[in-house]
């Protein structure tokens, strides 16, 4: 596990890749994140959104729209990105000694609890977490980076059988799999917390926006820790636009599905073994993940490698046919090398 004083190597570090391998941003094909390669068209933002602090009514309206969009049973708490919510999770049970994380997965969960002196125990499944005396269990669904999916019935059953444990489900990559979402149960199941990301699906990660669905007492802790004006006025305006335009949402879904198919085809034609996937990325078995990452980077294609899965890399979605051909042919060169 990465020490809490050592930054985790995330995807999207394009500036570092350019410093190492050269080129300009326009010459690189960045497939290192699970962020959609397509962005929702931005609305015209009123000048007042930049000049003044957002009103409570504006925040409430966007939370209502998010509740409808994600199928929530309670109003969520708006947060400046789900990473901000992850930083606050330990405060939901501040005196806990141990938590469990269904692993391998996103590394920031363990770091957040480690800062509070809590031990994060990796477990392979929810069933394994049931055997531990822990205060909380964290599950990413679908999981990053292997795309593992946990059925809703399994999560419901776990919540009800382990009322003393908080069950935190991160649905950052669930926008294309609403059948997996537990957002509608958060607030009904008192020990369930669901995190939803705005930027990944809408291709607007720079907006820094997310939502936390939870029963009122837990939601109040998150809100109190955030403080006032946690989410910017422009972010609220963009979210209100996104959640109100079902035509644009449908178009994004179609484009992501097409990009997923193109990426899968490129990997298959290059002879790359797919070990897992979500609608937003593929986990590939390549023998030596770090070496393959460097080889692809020498051709100015950026992917993600992992310390916990050293034989694998994660590949995001190509945006078009030209990028698909480039990925396919570069993989062929890399595999021959």
TrEMBL record:
Coiled coil: none annotated. The keyword Magnesium does not apply. Pathway: Cofactor biosynthesis; adenosylcobalamin biosynthesis. Pfam families: Aminotran_1_2. It catalyses: O-phospho-L-threonine + H(+) = (R)-1-aminopropan-2-yl phosphate + CO2. Its EC number is 4.1.1.81. InterPro entries: Aminotransferase_I/II_large, CobD, PyrdxlP-dep_Trfase, PyrdxlP-dep_Trfase_major, PyrdxlP-dep_Trfase_small. This is threonine-phosphate decarboxylase.
